[in-house]
Structures
1.
Amino acid sequence: MSPLGALLERLAALHPKKIDLSLERMERLAAALGNPERRLPPVVHVAGTNGKGSTVAYLRAALEAAGRRVHTYTSPHLVRFNERIRLAGELVDDARLCDALERVAAANDGGPITFFEVTTAAAFLLFAETPADVLLLEVGLGGRLDATNIIEAPVASVITPISIDHVEFLGDTLEAIAGEKAGIIKPRVPVIVGEQPDEALAVIERTAARRRAPLFARGQQWTVQEEAGRLVYSDEDGLLDLPRPRLMGPHQFDNAGLAVATLRAVPELRVPPPALEAGIRGADWPARLQRLPVGPLVARAPREAEVWLDGGHNAGGGQALAHALAELEERVPRPLVLVVGMLANKDVSGFLGAFAGLAREAICVPVPPEHNGTAPDDLARIAAGLGFSASTAGDVGAALDGLARYPLTPPPRVLVCGSLYLAGTVLAANETLPN
């Protein structure tokens, strides 16, 4: 194990629970570190259920195209922890990350603290000590009690589409979950909102009104739509005809539109139209409907099969993903096979149900053993109940081996999905590392 891996393992043992939402421990730790969260570049704080990472990717690409130096903080990582922290455009190296984590551990002095709180504090130290023009800060879970929410005065609060997820922590209704996400809204700070169910939008609107936060909501202050393969964006300042997003799927028009709305709503973030175009064309975000053309894992699939990867894992993500695959099926028909692994706290029926009538087969696999996954047999039982031809395999490679032994005609389109943790193992096994 590398020194960084050993250090992360030691820090993960400081708190008995993986998730324990609270701001008290984080505020104490930040104070012991000299409050680095108060010395950050302008912060764009991003919460929501689906599309956070893609929206951050579009924001980063557009800002960097305009010559801005951009920090990003996202989670979870896929293959290497370093993916979570990007300093002025570059992934943090092991030496700097270890140094920051050691300083955080010393300041914490053995007190109870969650792994996410430790790593967020280390990220704040690194962001405060490295010059940049903007910090794109993604919420870990929820918003109101998330460790990132000790930020007092971001330049923008962004809320991506909200759906049911993490009910054990955030509540089991859209209104309750929206209340947690809306907890990032700060007094008089613009809040830019993606497409929302009516129940969620009502909660966001009330919270913004209470905090006198200017609201820029899709369908009200701005719109986005696809026209002839182009992204057409409109707000009170005019209309933009922009290129098709690089990331695949109709939902990426929504994510890119939300990024454009954010950059236009906040004067400090404004970039010229050529930078917006470059950002939409150039954004990269692994494991979001990502085609894997080559690699040792792909080589185990049937000859000429397509292998796709997506980390979507809730009902809303499943619907967006199924819509994208349905569009692809219309253009290039192939039998769709799901290779799926999911965590035990996810709505399996809600996710898989989106693919009913679209995918003919579901091969169920375990997620990495360190995570609490749904047993493949249980996944297969649920899938069969939804009408899939369901089976199990020991891992994604074995699932592809099985397809190769019994090839479909034409060769199938294989979608590995259901978990970002599963996606990370696939990228590592296929030697397709995020950079």
2.
Amino acid sequence: MTVIDRPLDFLWFIPSSGDGAYLGSDDLSRPADPAYFREIAKAADRLGYSGVLIPTGAACEESFILAADLAAHTERLKFLVAIRPGTASPAYYARLAATLDRVSNGRLLINIVVGGSAQELAGDGIFLPHDERYDHAGEFFQVFNSLVETGKANLDGKYIKAIDARLGLPPIQEPRPPLYFGGSSDAAIAFSGGITDKYLTWGEPPAQVAEKIAKVRQAAAAKGKHVSFGIRLHFIVRETDEEAWAAADRLISKLSDETIAAAQEVFAKSSDSVGQARMVALHQGRREKLEVSPNLWAGIGLVRTGAGTALVGSPKTIAERLREYQELGIDTVIASGYPHLEEAYRVCELLFPEIGLPGPHGQIRSAFGEHRVFGGGGHGGNVKIASAS
């Protein structure tokens, strides 16, 4: 079975630095609140998303701790959490990962984040130049992988030294939880070829994604490895294309030019990420032409770091765009939308049927076999469909 014959593996997102209905505005915003994150996770679990990405960074809740909390409130949902080499030793991260996999009953996915903001990394005590961070990460994962796969590790490296390191309790998943990674620089792609189980790209036009996929495949083949591919996208799906584009316009309707300029200045000064530069290049900080490829809208990247594009349209339109990415080799989508609770429902209810995903788990019967329609929720319940005369 080819990639395009299989339904996509579809994950959602936990907005652990906060959420809202308008970019660049406090109107209808929602602060970072663990109770709200549980609402989103429980909804994603019930609606049929396979997992959630939990972001990392100084502005976010710590991903391992948040995942452990959310695991206690969900049943099937997997948690894609970040390991940032250099913020702790590989032995300590191995203990964190094994424990989280054990307490969640094998629901851990690992997101390798080498780091895109030199300014933030300096705050974490990491001062290596961009490309050298990947050399460091390569040694880090030699130790980490050896520990979680065999329980022991030794390395006398340039950056990492581990002498008779031990891990007492193994993870549930064998040989270890899967490793996800995204990075667009030559150094990142070279690193990904020997380490990554799944390579993630941000939502770029298909031609650019195809170019990256080819490079990663070549890097992996050179090291005798196989890698699969995923894409990180926002979604604005409505019943019609017109409604979806109106919703996209509404999302940035309270975003001022001054806020855009301030955000872009921060990106330029603090980030040495090639992926971030590629996102900025799509819109160049301007509102005039935000549809950078059919139905691929770069408005979110005017103020958001990282993934800055959304697929906008009706379920049928978005399904067509997703199939184009599938034909390139994409088999996984990590999705989000604003606000994340409501949009998790929209994407499930509108898009999932169009792309062959089953939707909510374990829905119970609402009638004794006869077809009824929603009657407004009154005390009389729903109503039968009248027979055609």
